[in-house]
Amino acid sequence: MSPDLALHRAIFDHLRADADLAALLGDPPRVHDETPAQPVWPLVVFGRAETRPWGGLDGEGLEHALTLTALSRFDGAEEARAIVAALRARLHNADLALDGWRLVNLRVTYGDVFRAADGRDFRGVIRVRAVTEPI
Q: For the whole model, what pTM was predicted?
């Protein structure tokens, strides 16, 4: 399995198993690879995923930069802020098992909450940095 897919699956499963996110996003938590055609609000969507070589022990490691977006239609930014905080708490320094790869580290490097361009919705964005090495 590719390291990108292994990391994505591990993060996806980790988020869907979280009780705090279930309280905010429904049970199981509404975490999606892309926005559904008819979404149920609020939800989290995986976004951009970048990968670049990282030296590691044998020069075969990879550095990943992932973006997750919380989508909210709550009257105000409170719900988006709560989701971003729960995502950060769940992911920062998480120890995840990846199929065929070792997770060296996982860190939340950025978070932002803002009103969407439509003026009605709120977005919460987090960026995650992960480093993986082959087993």
A: 0.94
By C-alpha distance, which of 125, 130, 129 is closest to 68? 125
Position 77 in a domain: yes
Instruction: Give the strand order in the sheet containing 101-115.
Output: 31-32, 43-54, 61-72, 122-134, 101-115
Copy the structure tokens of residue 8: 């994505």
User: pLDDT tens digits, residue range 1-25?
Assistant: 899 999 999 999 999 999 999 999 9
> How far apart are the C-alpha atoms of 21 and 44, rounded to whole Å?
10
Per the document, the length of the chain is: 135
What tokens were used for 103?
A: 């997770």
Q: Which residue has the tokens 């559904």?
A: 36
Range of the domain at 20: 3-108
> Using CA of residue 50, residue 107, residue 97, residue 54, what is the dihedral sign?
positive
**What is d(CA 74, CA 62) in angstroms, rounded to the nearest whole number?**
37
